Amino acid sequence: MDLTFEITEQVTGGVPVVSVAGEIDVATAPTLRDHLAVHEEAGAGVVVVDLLGVSFLDSTALGVLVGSFKRIRESGGDLKLVIAEPRILKVFEITDLVRVFSIFSTVGEALQDE
């Protein structure tokens, strides 16, 4: 387990940006779910999840992201991902989730898309 797991948040231009560092796995995914749930319950129109600092993610992490995406979409919003690490992006390609999520290489690009 990556002991440097950390989640930080900021709001940029009214858009919540949830930045994750370390490994998102069965032990840490519930923490991410809790952070995203706050924005879902608040009715955020768009949430950006910055995965630039993520070194590993498993199926539990994918489940958290897909679940949050569905709930935000149900209320008319969008969950955008920021991924630059080829190994992390490969997971989304293999699972065909690149067709589900809007994926950007920088937070700036994700925010600019608004």
Structure description:
The termini are far apart. Helix content is 39%, strand content 32%. The longest helix is centred in the middle third of the chain and has 16 residues. A five-stranded mixed beta sheet has the order 1-2-3-4-5. The radius of gyration is 13 Å and the shape is globular. The chain has 114 residues and is of the alpha/beta class. It has one domain: Transcription Regulator spoIIAA (2-Layer Sandwich), CATH 3.30.750.
Provide a brief overview of the structure.
This protein has 114 residues and is α/β, with parallel strands linked by helices. It contains 4 helices and 5 strands; from the N terminus they run ββαβαβαβα. The chain has helices at 29-41, 59-74, 86-94, 107-112, and strands at 6-12, 15-24, 46-57, 78-82, 102-104.
Question: SSE layout and pairings?
Answer:
Layout: E1 6-12, E2 15-24, H1 29-41, E3 46-57, H2 59-74, E4 78-82, H3 86-94, E5 102-104, H4 107-112
Parallel strand pairs: 2-3, 3-4, 4-5
Antiparallel strand pairs: 1-2
Helix pairs in contact: 1-2
The helix content is 25-40%
When the domains are counted, the total is 1
Order the strands across the largest sheet as they lie in space.
Answer: 1-2-3-4-5
Distance between the termini: 35 Å
Task: Just name the CATH architecture.
Answer: 2-Layer Sandwich
Which structural class do you get from the secondary structure elements? alpha/beta
- Rg, alpha carbons: 13 Å
CATH homologous superfamily classification:
STAS domain
Query: Residue ranges: pLDDT <50 for 5 or more in a row?
Result: none
Overall 3D form: globular
- Proportion of residues in β-strands: 25-35%
Integer average pLDDT = 94
Quantity of strands, as a count: 5
The biggest beta sheet reads: 5 strands, mixed
